[in-house]
Specification:
9-stranded mixed beta sheet, D-amino Acid Aminotransferase, Chain A, domain 1, about 30% strand, alpha+beta, D-amino Acid Aminotransferase, Chain A, domain 2
Length: about 325
């Protein structure tokens, strides 16, 4: 298998967090798809720079050890239970992973607790809508749920993602299972002028991961994506909302309709926190009483945007979390 092609696949999956790639002692190390591969790459991948393995060392769900693989040998493959990857309900080889993940794709991400997920219908709606828009194909929901259950196995708690990739026949369904995760709070955001292309689709052909890396390098937790004139859209990995005396403001700008955001918008009014859409610009941020980010991992307060400090609104954060906790869990 061509080394450069495998490196490209690892880059695509690492920037979405499904595997960790690390360069150490001249090897590129990764775990995923029930395997770990170590491949000598000191002459092929620089220590720093766009696409390098070094930039993913902060996404540590584990720290891989370096296999003793001479540069003249083929890759050593060993089983690893840390990340499970299945395509159409089957374990995959590195070759199958490359062949599938090299194509255009989209995905949805969720947390599993007790073998259940919040907003499962919305997740399936998202996958079906993206399938029709990108591939002109429908979605067999029962088949996707079967793949999800199979990949989970006996895992009651997990971070689960469902990817759909273009293929010669029907779109290929990839399910990844990793350890469960929760969002950390508070969050600090660095604004960048970038909006995802086709922002309403959770697709893979985007570059926001690059800006997340830059933000973290400057001591922030994530990038805040903005458009012309500082119009706020979303963060690189979450939706954002702002609090004022009237309730919660979600930016009226191109963004992904996050599942957690949709669920909160249904519940918050019943808890005395009305929601509305309105344009929000960076210059407006200091006037808000607080800000919060939401995704499948939960809700977190935002206490800094660039050089602007925001109050930590513990009371509203508690209401947002209460609202999210009230959402029922759906059986996979």
């Amino acid at each position: 298998m061509d080394q450069r092609k495998l490196e490209n696949v690892l880059w695509r999956l690492a920037r979405k967090g499904d595997i960790q790639v690390r360069r150490e002692n001249g090897y590129i190390n990764w775990r995923g798809a029930q395997t770990r591969i170590s491949w000598f790459t000191s002459s092929r991948i620089p220590a720093t720079g766009h696409g390098s393995a070094a930039e993913w060392t902060d996404r540590a769900y584990f720290v891989p050890t370096v296999a003793d693989v001479p540069s003249t040998r083929r890759p050593a493959v060993v089983r690893s239970p840390t990340v499970r990857v299945e395509i159409n309900g089957e374990h995959v080889s590195a070759e199958a992973l490359w062949a599938t993940a090299s194509e255009l794709g989209h995905f949805t991400a969720m947390q599993i607790r007790g073998g259940k997920s919040r907003g499962l219908t919305l997740h399936l709606d998202r996958l079906e809508a993206a399938n029709r828009e990108l591939f002109g194909a429908g979605l067999d929901r029962d088949r996707v749920r079967q793949f999800m259950r199979h990949a989970l196995g006996d895992a009651d708690e997990a971070s689960l993602r469902v990817y759909v990739f273009e293929s010669e026949n029907d779109p290929a369904v990839m399910v990844t299972v990793r350890p469960p995760a929760e969002v950390s709070t508070p969050q600090r955001l660095r604004s960048v002028e970038y909006q995802r292309p086709l922002s309403h689709v959770k697709h893979l052909a985007t570059g926001q991961g690059f800006y997340t890396r830059l933000a973290r390098g400057d001591g922030f937790d994530d990038a805040l994506l903005t458009g012309s004139g500082g119009v706020v859209s979303e963060t690189a990995i979450a939706n954002i909302c702002f609090a004022d005396d009237a309730g919660v403001v979600w930016p009226d700008a191109p963004q992904l309709e996050g599942i957690t955001m949709q669920l909160l918008q249904r519940v918050l009014p019943d808890l005395g926190m009305p929601c509305r859409r309105a344009p929000v610009r960076l210059e407006d941020v200091p006037r808000f009483a607080g800000a919060f980010v939401t995704n499948a991992r939960g809700v977190a307060a935002v206490t800094r945007v660039d050089g602007t400090e925001l109050p930590f609104d513990a009371a509203r954060l508690a209401v947002l979390r209460k609202a999210y906790d009230s959402v029922p869990w759906d059986s996979i």
